[in-house]
Sequence to fold (94 residues):
Amino acid sequence: MERPKEKYNEEYDLHYYDDYEADQYMDDLESRLKKVEARMEEARESLETDPDYDTGLINDYGGGNIGWWQDYIRSEIERCNEYWKERIEQALKE
Fold:
C-alpha cells in the first residue's frame, strides 16, 4: 500500500492526511511488522534446535609445533563461522 498523500487546506494553512487513508496505511505497516516479527521468531527457534558445528576428531599431526596448532585452530574457527553464517542466512530466507 502506498503512503497516503499529504493534503493542504489553504484556508487554515494546514497540512493533513485523510484519516481513513492514514489508518489503512498504519494497519498495513502493523501487519507487515507482525509478519517480520513472526519470521524472526521462527528463525530464532530454528537456530536453537540446529545441531552445533562438529569439528570431528581432532588430530595430533602438529605435535609440539605451535604455529601448526594456531593455523589448525584458525581454520576450524573459519569453518565454524562459515557454517553458522550459512545456517543464519538460510533461516532468514525461510
Notes: The CA atoms of residues 43 and 91 lie 5 Å apart. Residues 53-94 form one domain. The longest helix spans residues 19-49. Strands lie at 7-9, 14-16.
